[in-house]
Amino acid sequence: MRDDDAVVDVRELTREFGRVVALDRVTLRVPRGAVLGLVGVNGSGKTTLLKHVLGLYRAQRGRVRVFGIDPVADPVGVLSRVGYVSDQAELPRWMRVGELLRYTGSFYRTWDAALAGRLCEQFGLDLSAEVGGLSRGMRARAALTAAMAHRPELLVLDEPSAGLDPLARRDVLQAIIRSVAEDGRTVLLSSHLLDEVERVADHVALIDAGRVVFAGELEAIRDRHRRLVLRFDRPRSVPPALEGVLRWEGGGLEWTAVCQGARGELERAAAAQGAVVVDEAAPRLEELLTAHVAGPREG
Predict the structure, then answer these.
(1) What angle (nearest 5°) sits at the alpha carbon of residue 142, between those of residues 137 and 143?
(2) Which letter, b or e, does each residue of 244-275 get, where b requires 16 or more Cβ atoms within 10 Å of its Cβ?
(3) pTM for this structure?
(4) How far are the Cα atoms of 169, 194, 200 from residue 88, in angstroms, in the given order?
């Protein structure tokens, strides 16, 4: 990937809070037009990374560039081209929805009032309603409208649907998908709802304990891993130690392995342990996260 292909370019970024290493030499690039899902357990460093992208934290070591710009050195040059929604949806509660949108629009030369109106109609937002009186789901819709109506080149979403009911989550996801399809927008989405990340993301990065475990195109990452169901010729209380297996689940005669590496080698190693492969599939994102983060085996 050439430098000008990356909207977000993070290299060897380290951030420490006292003795706690929140980010440890993180390198991550988000291609133009991609939807990158940033996943990991709570406290893994996702929000800290996003705050560096937004210029809220200065890099202690390493560097961050957004559109080729240092977001700390030139916050206007970056933030004028970014839309941001957090899980808190921190909006002025005393404003009415229409006032909120007019106020937000005054900061952006690219503000599209017609788009804001269409989003409000799509989301069922009442322009005369006070923000403080909105439900959490409606506040999230209002925040997303304010973030998208200036047609940002980069949309940064930090747990945008956390705590929302299924209908609100569906609306948020549909708006993101439509935005990407219509405008070719780049999206950086942090979420613990892995099934939703799989629905909208074409790239994914897993962060654990401040380090990037893997990053790249989602399908390519899934293709490098397999979920195999193995049936043994006799019951086992523990699974065998097979190279390439990241995590085991099961018991007795049948065990499921999430693994990476050449399938043929694993099959031969399993056969030597008295097992045959009876089923095979690409693992889901949740299985990949669990395999890489939660340890090697579960009985």
Answers:
(1) 95
(2) bbbbbbbeeebbbbbbbeeeeebbebbeeeeb
(3) 0.88
(4) 15, 19, 21
CB 63 within 8 Å of CB 249: no
Give the model confidence (pLDDT) of 140-176 as tens digits: 889 989 999 999 999 999 887 766 778 777 777 777 7
Identify which of 123, 126, 133 has the alpha carbon closest to the alpha carbon of residue 97: 126
Query: In one letter, which amino acid is 194?
Result: L
Q: What domains can be seen in the chain, in order of their start residue?
A: 3-221 (3.40.50.300), 224-298 (no CATH)
Residues in the chain: 299
Residue 123: closest CA among 106, 105, 108, 143: 143
Task: Answer whether 68's CB lies under 8 Å from 78's CB.
Answer: no
Strands 61-66 and 6-17: antiparallel
Mean pLDDT score across all residues of the chain: 89
Q: Alpha-carbon distance 20 to 22, whole Å?
A: 6
Question: Within 10 Å of residue 109's Cβ, how many Cβ atoms?
Answer: 7
Given a cut of 70, whether residue 181 has pLDDT beyond it is no
How many other β-carbons are positioned within 10 Å of the β-carbon of residue 110? Answer: 12
pLDDT in tens, 253-298: 999 999 987 777 788 888 888 899 999 898 999 999 999 987 665 5
Q: Is the dihedral of CA 27, 45, 205, 197 positive or negative?
A: negative
